[in-house]
Design a protein that fits this description.
about 425 residues; alpha/beta; Aminopeptidase; Aminopeptidase i, Domain 2; 2 domains; nine-stranded mixed sheet; three-stranded antiparallel sheet; about 25% strand; Peptidase_M18; M18 family aminopeptidase; metal-binding
């Protein structure tokens, strides 16, 4: 294990670069596409018939990617081996319209996206990133430097702030960008994107924390970063697929968008994107409806999303006996009410992958009095009817602007996913 762990620092450095390059889901998808092309994956246009489905291929649609490695011929007992993740994180989406003027300051109007820990975004150096769509329909990625800040009220003006800080999403979470704004923010972003501001039709823009990821701790065993939920899983799945060789099964990575707001979109897990691709792959092998359904019945999915480490200052919020630790291995996420899709059959698939990879894993269950969140796992299982298991690395401060994980856990997850893909090779 010690010899194997020698590559963990390289993995965490690569994850840091991936997060830095991916301030929004659109950037994450573009970064994934660039890396996939670099290792020989062919991009297909989902708007056109697929010109073959075997080998290494992928599609990119907005902030989502589906990539796969498929054999030339499909064996009778083959199936899909799917890793599902998501590319979005809680944030603040820029509203359309003119800047806000208040108290002599110029602010940008934003709308809360998902469920961020609001207070974690206060007094941070924020940028604006996302995509701009021109009147011709072309999309342009853009990201600024640190140009915004959501300021907290000084303690002298709110003596009870340390007793009970209450933040109104509309009144208190609008960022300042200037005092006397010399030119509109959209004009600045258009210049960064290399387009005339007059050509802008609309935009999907978000705030992001500009602080770079870092390895921290007295023993350098922690990794602090924004968007670990869920770029940690997306990166692990990507690195696993990059090294996957053609085997008996079809290895698939799907990175959905919009998980943080319910997944019911064209590129979310509740939408058709994964099912469409799987059915088109099956059609590429000449399979009809019955054979395609049988292929899906032989398939499995690892839904990889972050879970919770036990919090040392709030131990009572966790299950009394289940205390996942950093660097103890990725979590096997279990919930009786199917907020996670894990069952015994899916758990066995995950445990076999961890054993093959030689990495540890930890069970995760919630305190009965504090319901857990959910993932793309139950949605994928419901849409496709395939065995699905929920896993992911443990985090402190999930949905904070800056989350924390164990350095080794991110590496462990990638190795387990690589073993899952390769076990049918």
């Amino acid at each position: 294990m010690e010899a194997m762990l020698s590559t963990a620092p390289d993995h965490i450095a690569d994850l840091a670069g991936f997060v830095t390059a991916s301030p929004t889901s659109y950037h994450a998808a573009a970064t994934m596409a660039q890396r996939l092309r670099a290792v020989g994956f062919e991009e297909l246009d989902p708007r056109r018939p697929f010109r073959g489905v075997t080998g290494k291929r992928f599609i990119q649609r907005d902030g989502a990617v589906v990539a796969w490695v498929a054999p030339e011929e499909l064996a009778e007992d083959a199936g899909f081996r799917i890793v599902g993740t998501h590319t979005d994180s809680p944030s603040f989406k820029v509203k359309p319209g003119d800047p806000i003027r208040s108290g002599g300051w110029t602010q940008v109007g934003v709308e809360v996206y998902g469920g961020p820990l609001l207070n974690s975004w206060l007094d941070r150096d924020l940028g604006i990133a996302g995509r701009i769509v021109t009147r011709s329909g072309e999309s342009h990625l853009v990201r600024s430097g640190p140009i915004a800040r959501i300021p907290q009220l000084a303690i002298h003006l709110d003596r009870g702030a340390n007793d009970a800080l209450k933040l109104d999403k509309q009144q208190h979470m609008q960022p300042v960008v200037a005092v006397d704004l010399k030119r509109p923010v959209m004009e600045h972003l258009a210049e960064l994107a290399g387009i005339p501001a007059a050509d802008i039709a609309f935009h999907d823009l978000y705030l992001f924390d500009t602080q770079r990821p870092a390895v921290i701790g007295a023993e350098e065993e922690f990794f602090a970063s924004g968007r670990l939920d869920n770029l940690s899983s997306t990166h692990a799945g990507l690195t696993a697929l990059e090294s996957t060789k053609v085997g008996t099964d079809v290895a698939v990575l799907v990175a959905f968008d919009h998980e943080e707001v319910g997944s019911d979109t064209t590129t979310g897990a509740g939408g058709p994107i994964l099912q469409d691709v799987l059915e088109r792959i099956a059609a590429g092998y000449g399979l009809g409806l019955d054979a395609t359904r049988a292929l899906l019945a032989r398939s499995s999915c690892i839904s990889a999303d972050s879970g919770h480490l036990v919090h040392p200052n709030y131990v009572g919020h966790h299950d009394p006996k289940n205390h996942p630790q950093p660097n103890g291995g990725p979590l096997l996420k279990i919930n009786a009410n199917q907020r996670y899709a894990t069952d015994a059959r899916g758990a066995a698939i995950w445990l076999a992958a961890c054993e093959q990879a030689g990495v540890p894993t930890q069970p995760f269950v919630s305190n009965n009095s504090i319901p857990c969140g959910s993932t793309i796992g139950p949605i994928t299982a419901t849409r496709l009817g395939i065995t699905t298991v929920d896993v992911g690395i443990g985090l402190l401060s999930m949905h904070s602007a800056r989350e924390l994980c164990g350095v080794q856990d991110a590496w462990f997850l990638a190795r387990a996913l690589e073993a899952y893909y390769s076990s049918a090779a």
